[in-house]
Design brief:
Layout: H1 10-23, H2 32-41, H3 46-73, H4 77-97, H5 101-130, H6 135-163, H7 167-185, H8 194-197, H9 227-243, H10 246-255, H11 261-287, H12 293-309, H13 316-321, H14 323-345, H15 351-380, H16 382-403, H17 407-420
Helix pairs in contact: 1-5, 1-6, 1-7, 2-3, 2-10, 3-5, 3-15, 4-5, 4-7, 5-15, 6-7, 6-11, 6-14, 9-15, 9-16, 10-11, 11-14, 12-14, 12-16, 14-15, 14-17, 15-16
Length: about 425
């Protein structure tokens, strides 16, 4: 049975645009700015910074898959985002006001819990509003607004950090969290198809059709019996193991010996990457309509190149320019990861819990990356850390290329088999 065309109101679609814009810098709290703040303002050691950076990802790893299952089952998806935004605001404010080790870890845990909510809830709301047929372009639009929001936030953060105080960046993120809560409340609840939002069939489809079996959520353990999902998660873990620590390490390197300029350079790094991610995400959504894997493979392939380039010089202008590659990979990843999971789970009712498992894999990779990179820098220096991350990125690229199938074509094959049975 062909999916019916969905036509949500412009009010809901514009509210979703604004949600992605304001939530851009809220998803991960202050992100790499935390490393600069702890290094330049609080004189923390690299190993302690690595622990603090990884605390949020550990919380995300623990919460991600259960929250994905919760998003599958709950209709209050908008309220989940509001609660997550509140957690980020609290976490950022207490870190800024009381930057002791236990408070920073506690604040990072709150931010990590919120980070487990946002990707799954936004993807579910998007799918529930527009349906599978329009999801590729919708996700591309989501990511374009997300990266535009990051450009805005990074520009404001750089100016606030340079002209006022590094602590002001934390309050900026808290304010954007409040704005995102207002935006999500303007999405019309009645326009979200909650069955479709979890990867099942639409709520008003005929109960007697064979396709109606998609209403029943498949068992959690079935998730781990799908070899394609497992291989995809393995590639993603390695990708983020290689990727997550690169920008924080660049930030720490820029902060060495610079009393005030590091925040501006970090903002420049983020702005360059996010500006590239806007067209990258938009084009990825368009090209992925025909095939997923070739587009995603490009995102994997640029990461090892980026890691090697970081070792060539300490020149801040060069380090900032390398962020163009981060923009290419980031724009592609944000779109294709959602689309490939949607392909693999269509009709199963397991879209959001699979998203949760995928984001757990991302959290594992990111947490280990920040934790281990801090110790490597302390023992062997920045260049050794960057080369090690580049090698892991190369392995991730090979695994994705050789072992992960084309989900667009495999989905078509599955549909054919289902129609013949």
């Amino acid at each position: 049975m062909q999916e019916k065309s969905r036509k949500p109101s412009q009010k809901s679609l514009k509210a979703l645009d604004l949600l992605n814009l304001f939530l851009a810098d809220v998803r991960d709290g202050v992100g790499p700015y935390l490393a600069i703040f702890l290094k330049a303002s609080e004189n923390w050691h690299p190993a302690d910074i690595g622990i603090a950076m990884s605390a949020s990802t550990v919380a995300t790893v623990i919460a991600q898959t259960p929250i994905g299952g919760l998003v599958d089952r709950l209709r209050q998806k908008r309220m989940l985002i509001i609660v997550g935004a509140t957690f980020v605001s609290i976490g950022c404010i207490i870190i800024a006001l009381f930057p002791s080790f236990p408070i920073v870890i506690g604040g990072q845990i709150l931010i990590g819990l919120a980070a487990a909510v946002f990707p799954a809830a936004i993807a579910a709301i998007s799918l529930g509003l527009v349906g599978h047929d329009n999801l590729d372009r919708r996700v591309g639009r989501n990511e374009a607004f997300n990266h535009a929001g990051n450009v805005l936030a990074a520009t404001l953060a750089g100016l606030i950090g340079f002209l006022i105080s590094r602590k002001g960046i934390f309050f900026l993120v808290a304010a954007m969290a409040a704005a995102s809560a207002v935006a999500v409340s303007r999405i019309r609840e009645k326009e979200i198809d909650h069955e479709l939002a979890r990867g099942a069939k639409e709520e008003d489809e005929d109960e007697d059709t064979p396709e109606k079996q998609g209403h029943e959520v498949s068992g959690f353990m079935q998730l781990f019996s799908d070899r394609r999902i497992l291989l995809f998660c393995l590639a993603v873990i390695l990708f983020h193991f290689a990727n997550a620590a690169m920008l924080p390490l660049v930030g720490q390197r820029l902060a060495e010996g610079k009393a005030t300029g590091a925040t501006l350079y970090m903002s420049a790094c983020i702005i360059v990457a996010q500006l590239v991610m806007i067209p990258s995400a938009t084009l990825a959504g368009r090209f992925a309509h025909a095939a997923r894997k070739p587009v995603f493979l490009l995102g994997f392939a640029v990461l090892p190149i980026r890691g090697v380039l970081y070792t060539l010089t300490d020149n801040p202008y060069f380090l900032v320019s390398v962020q163009i590659l981060d923009g290419v990979a980031g724009g592609i990843f944000g779109v294709l990861s959602v689309l490939m999971v949607a392909d693999l789970t269509k009709g199963t009712g397991r879209f959001n819990i699979t998203q949760g498992a995928l984001n757990t894999a991302i959290g594992i990779g990111a947490g280990l990356s920040n934790l281990l990179a801090g110790f490597v820098v302390e023992k062997a220096g920045y260049n050794t850390a960057f080369l090690g991350l580049a090698a892991i990125a190369a392995v991730a690229t090979v695994i994705f290329w050789m072992l992960v199938p084309e989900t667009k074509s495999s989905h078509k094959a599955q549909s054919l088999v289902a129609s013949e049975s």
